[in-house]
Amino acid sequence: MIKLSKMHKRVLALGAVLPLGTAIAQTAEPQLETVTVTAQRRAENIKDVPVSVTMLKDEKLDVLLSGGQDIRFLAGKVPSLNVESSNGRTFPRFYIRGYGNTDFSTFASQPVSLVYDDVVQENGILKGFPVFDVAGVEVLRGPQGTLFGRNTPAGVVKFESAKPNLDKVEGYYSLSWGSHNTTNLEAAANIPLSSEWAMRVSTLRQHRDDFVDNTYTKQADSLEGYNEHAERVQFLYKPNASFNALFNVHARSTDGSARLFRGNLIKKGTNDFADGYDFTKISTDGLNFQNLRTNGANARLTWDLGAVKLFSITGYEGVDNYYTRGDIDGGSPANPPRFPVQTAGGITDLKQYSQEFRVESKNAGPLNWQTGVYYFKESGTGFSDNFDSTTQAQTSDLTSHQNNTAYAAFGSVTYDVSSDFTLRAGLRYTHDEKDFRTVNIWGVSQTGPKSVDVSKNKANWDLSGTYKINKDVSTYARVATGFRAPSIAAASASVPITVADAETITSVEAGIKADLFNRRARASLSVYNYDVKNQQLTVVGGTSNVTKLINAAKTAGRGVEAEIEGFVTPDFKVSLSGSYNFTEIKDPSLYAAVCGTCTVTDPIVNGLASINGNPLPQAAKYIFNASARYNWPLADGNLFVLTDWSYRSKINFFLYESKEFTGKEMLEGGLRVGYNWDGGKYEVAAFGRNITNTRRIIGGIDFNNLTGFVNEPRQFGVQFRGGF
After folding, report:
1. Are the C-beta atoms of residues 562 and 551 closer than 8 Å to each other?
2. Is residue 433 domain-resident?
3. Residue 173 to residue 681: CA distance in whole angstroms
4. Fewer CB in a 10 Å sphere around the end CB: N or C, the chain?
5. What is the dihedral of CA 395, 400, 449, 540, to 10 degrees?
6. How far apart are the first and last CA of the chain?
7. Integer angstrom CA distances of residue 410 from 1, 356, 420, 485, 599
8. pLDDT digits (tens, 9 = 90+) for 438-496
9. Which GO cellular component terms are attached (predicted)?
10. 129 Cβ partners below 8 Å, 6+ apart?
């Protein structure tokens, strides 16, 4: 039973706000367009899907991405979702309903799966592929293991690229320029090549100047810049109505600053900025840079055989090179305390192959089904190096290699008990195995074995029901289980290779979805409760700067998610959403290493903090979003003003709790004023992101001083977008 405070009840009452409801009811038009999602691997109306899901597309995405943001733009923009990274624009970590993984090591696994064009992006580096020319982004909350597999106990973030078509030559281009000479160029073109072939070419170019001074080296404007480009080429082959093939080749290249770790950023005994803090300055003796090259290709084949459809999805993803280097204490002789070591890490080679065959029924009757098999193979080599800050000479190296092979068989059945009541059941069997070994080590001691092999078999299932109260309102209930395979972490600081056993989740949720006022508004509400057994947690940092994996006997989570959007008037559209997520670690035997200089608030036993009863790291209890768009029709076009705001409550950076390493609540807003004409074909706009210049510490390094890193600064810019 979920107990709600007065605040939570007010959040759930958003859909019943009388002024909004009354105004919408008095409006004759327009209507919201139907949102189609593929949460169950079929195209369905979002209202009919028994899953808590949010879709972002079109203008919503364009607004959020206009200033050159990377994939972390999704953080807090939909209920129950957080995204963060201690590596800057690379290696993002996702959290849904407070459930995620803070591990930053090369082969860290996450309970949130990222799927791009039906291909799982398993390694954290692959999850950061830029978002451009996409048809939409779906955020699926709760276990999705039956149909998606590959470590989805928390949920799935699903991207779908805009596809080629045989109809006509068309496309778009978008160019924005903003603060710190930030430029963002995005373009795509669809080109029919014949009656059977079409091509779509998409590209992204992003740049930001360095704007942070290093006061130790006396270098002005030397850090925080980046250059990024990504490309995607797709070919569609459609010789007839019963067969089509879609081929996709893509690549990414990024260079620039790594995350800036700012020494002595936090005031002792608080989570405030230290006196004299300046966003545009840092004093560090360490080198700071990163570069990344990735590439991939996939082929999606579809056969319509009459009674069934057959799908084949073949995917390859590769990392040619990834290198990131920074100063983990963020200090210098001019900014003590200082630890005279810099760290670097990366991937010298990573290859991922996947293959899925799936058969989907096309029955006109009440019973339909889909079934398939899945294969996954990953092989990669990663390293962690140390350097002397004074001489810049390398002092140690630890290089590891991992092979991961998995296969699965899955199926689901949907049965229409009546025209209003539908039942669905799914089952998936997975075998997952990993072999991990140290291939090179010098300058650091390793205890224990040099190699580890693990494997696990597991069956997941889900059961759901959807009931249509009427043509506009439906309810659902769902019980689902999930599974994350065992994880392995490399040795570090005299800590041996560690293994976290497989984790499992059982989740129960229920919800209601409705189209309101003749589809001039829509709303949804979901409540959930989950228990995770053997959750994989990562102990990082502490005075010994160790990284190791542990399992928590149990973690509990519960919460509420609500969304509403609609037209207040034909020219005034508003959307509101929010979530309450409560998480708790339940294991009296678990302890974690703590910081050397911070104020720990957990019980300390033999120098370690008891983490029993703590929330999960990076789990915001509250997330709220609001946006409003007003349109003034003119003779030749439309003038508009749009504002969007997102709020998240405080977060804990680590497994233990302390006064310093607790991120304050954060509110960020955006503003966009523009004009579009020729039926929306062209648009010019001025925009601002983080317009209140909110400054927050969003992560930390707890090694030997109060080191942290900060959110993105305020940005203003202009954008022009055109279509053809």
Report:
1. no
2. yes
3. 11
4. N
5. 70
6. 54
7. 32, 11, 27, 17, 49
8. 999 998 888 889 999 999 999 999 999 999 999 999 999 999 999 999 999 998 767 89
9. cell outer membrane
10. 71, 116, 121, 230, 250, 252, 294
pLDDT in tens, 117-129: 999 999 999 999 9
Question: For residue 24, is it within any domain?
Answer: no
What tens digit of pLDDT does each residue of 270-310 get?
999 999 889 999 988 878 999 999 999 999 999 999 999 99
User: Phi/psi class of residue 684: alpha, beta or left (left: φ > 0; alpha: ψ in -120 to 50)?
Assistant: beta
DSSP string, 458-486: EEEEEEEEEEESSSSEEEEEEEEEEEE--
Burial of 667 (0-12, 13-18, 19+ CB in 10 A): middle
CB 397 within 8 A of CB 383: yes
Dihedral sign from CA coordinates of 711, 714, 717, 719: positive
> What is the chain's percent helix, strand, coil content, to nearest 5?
5, 60, 35
**Between 16 and 665, where is the model more confident?**
665
How many angstroms separate the CA atoms of 369 and 379, rounded? Answer: 34
- C-alpha distances in angstroms, 458 versus 453, 486, 536, 553? 17, 11, 16, 18
Q: What is the mean pLDDT of residues 346-365?
A: 95
Q: Check residues 332 and 430 and name the one with the higher pLDDT.
A: 430
Has residue 348 been placed in a domain? yes
Say if residues 152 and 145 touch (Cβ distance below 8 Å): yes
Q: What CA dihedral angle connects 144, 616, 710 and 207, to 10 degrees?
A: -10
Q: Inform me whether the pLDDT recorded for 1 exceeds 70.
A: no
Which domain covers residue 70, as residue numbers? 38-723
In 634-665, the DSSP E strands lie at 637-648, 651-652, 662-663
- Give the CATH number, domain containing residue 695: 2.40.170.20
| Number of other residues whose CB lies within 10 A of the CB of residue 596 | 16
User: Which amino acid is it at 447?
Assistant: T
Quote the tokens at residue 665. 């609540």
How many domains does the chain divide into? Answer: 1
Q: How far apart, in whole angstroms, are the C-alpha atoms of residue 159 and residue 116?
A: 5
Higher pLDDT, 689 or 40: 689
Say yes or no to pLDDT of 404 above 90.
yes
Please determine, for residue 161, whether its predicted confidence score (pLDDT) is greater than 50. yes
Q: How far is 86 from 88, CA to CA, in rounded Å?
A: 6
Global model pTM greater than 0.85: yes
Q: What are 331's two structure tokens?
A: 């200090």
Question: Comparing C-alpha atoms, which of 295, 272, 254 is closest to residue 92?
Answer: 254
The predicted pLDDT at position 170 comes to: 96
